[in-house]
Amino acid sequence: KAGVTQTPRYLIKTRGQQVTLSCSPISGHRSVSWYQQTPGQGLQFLFEYFSETQRNKGNFPGRFSGRQFSNSRSEMNVSTLELGDSALYLCASKLGGNQETQYFGPGTRLLVL
Amino acid sequence: SQELEQSPQSLIVQEGKNLTINCTSSKTLYGLYWYKQKYGEGLIFLMMLQKGGEEKSHEKITAKLDEKKQQSSLHITASQPSHAGIYLCGAPQGGSEKLVFGKGTKLTVNP
Questions:
Q1: B39 interaction partners in chain A (CB closer than 8 Å)
Q2: CA A107 to CA A89: how far, in whole Å?
Q3: For the segment A64-86, what is each residue's pLDDT rounded down to a tens digit?
Q4: A11 bridge partner residues
């Protein structure tokens, strides 16, 4: 089975722009979670989608949004980029039940100039 | 909110040595995950512990969960350069689907 894939792998944007990241979960997985990883804050939960609905949300501003499609693929959007948004963005998928193992993708490294 | 503290923050060992990484939670643990990350890459799942006292092993890595102490430990026996990386513990926050992670332990294994 193919693992979690994320595109693009690397991205450079300037402040004020917006960006969309994509995540394709493992086949059959219906839950997709997004995380932001920075050297200072570590790995932080952004949100989780399950069956096209946002099921959980972290403590990030409204500039961070996401969605999930009927095939379970998910996108994350960040509007009005700030320098502090530079990070590794990871998505993880799981079947969908509580306390199941999440499997992570390779991440998208975003640099905001 | 729940916080996970990992110790040590970094570790340098000689190949063949044993080592232990600890993860302590500020609140009750409803399960604990261990992941390994190579720099700038995704997380590789190692083990999941669900019950107090549970112990799991995979190859030369053993993890234990002490619910009373709200703590988990990861032990590597006879370390190899392939064990090098950043080890992260994660736990469901308040039993929810959100995972909170420790800041990680950077392991270097010198040949």
A1: none
A2: 5
A3: 999 999 999 999 999 999 999 99
A4: A110
Q: Is A21 touching B (CB cutoff 8 A)?
A: no
Q: Which of A9, A10, A29, A104 to mutate to test the interface with B (most CBs of B within 10 A)?
A: A104
Do A42 and B101 lie within an 8 Å CB cutoff? yes
Copy the structure tokens of residue A64. 């961070």
Tell me the backbone φ, ψ of residue B8, rounded to 5 degrees: -75, 175
A88 interfaces chain B, CB cutoff of 8 Å: yes
| Residue B106 burial by Cβ neighbours in a 10 Å radius (0-12, 13-18, 19+) | middle
Q: Assign B68 to helix, strand or coil.
A: coil
pLDDT in tens, B46-104: 999 987 788 999 889 999 999 888 999 999 999 999 999 999 999 988 767 788 999 99
Nearest CA to B19 among B55, B89, B72, B73?
B73
**C-alpha neighbours within 13 Å on the C-beta side of residue A22:** 7
The answer to whether the CB of B45 falls within 8 A of the CB of A101 is yes
